[in-house]
Amino acid sequence: MDDSDTCLRQTPLKTERIVRRNNASNRAVQINAPLEEDLWKNVDRLVIEDNMADSQGIQVNYAITREMVVVMFDQQNKLIAAERQTPGVLRHDRVVVKASVR
Known about the structure:
single chain
């Protein structure tokens, strides 16, 4: 038999999506996924790991609706507004004490 007589086994094409080691901090917004339509629903292998959001950062690593993004932005804005209204912690080296004289 030569090569033309053999049956080639077709290996099915597999799709893979990896979302790894992303960081959203200091009120940053990071979206590592499709909006609205779940474009990853037929992905053969999906890996989401070692991602972090802190300091009022927002990070999305899987499909989400626009409405949900708006809800997250609204919540983030409320937290930021509340933070601005809260007076800072007084440092001991900045406190002025008036001595009373008798």
